[in-house]
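Hey, I was hoping to borrow your eyes for a little while. A protein chain has come my way and I'm curious about its shape. Take your time with it, there's no hurry, and the full record follows here:
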Amino acid sequence: MNTKQHTSAADSERMDAIVRDNEQLVFQLNHEQHSPAEARSLLAKITGHPLDPTTIVRLPWLTNYGHNTRFGKNDFININTMFDDLGGITIGDNVLIAPNVQLLTVNHPLDAIARRDRHVLNLGPIVIEDDVWIGAGATITPGVTVGHGAVVAAAAVVTHDVAPNTVVAGVPAKMIQNLN
């Protein structure tokens, strides 16, 4: 797992401005009717990157930041997913993400005194490699990489990297099957 601490108040102010702008776009995305092209255009504004026409994102889709999410090609993101992407989320190609999945790249310090400063965050990028399937209600925590061809079972809480071509399940998630 790869995590780092974020402590800059100036960075926090810049990010807060992006969050405020994106809150309006995310609201618009989730509460108005859109053609697929219009939805892709809004997602591109939110993330700052074009969305491949083969990728489908079902609404509602939520993010707290947006600019640190990268989608691949031919991805299918189902309804009611949360992308907490301050630490960065990279999604490979041919990825399936089921309803109610949470990708969380932000954590707070365990030390109570450190938590008093809202600018102190532990960030860890999430990488979802190609051909991954993440089941309904799963949670992926900061700093996790889900390897190529892996399957994350429904309701799993993934706190460590997932090896390629394996199935993980449980809380915390553990390997239950090798797909090779």
Remarks:
- DSSP finds three helices and 19 strands in the chain.
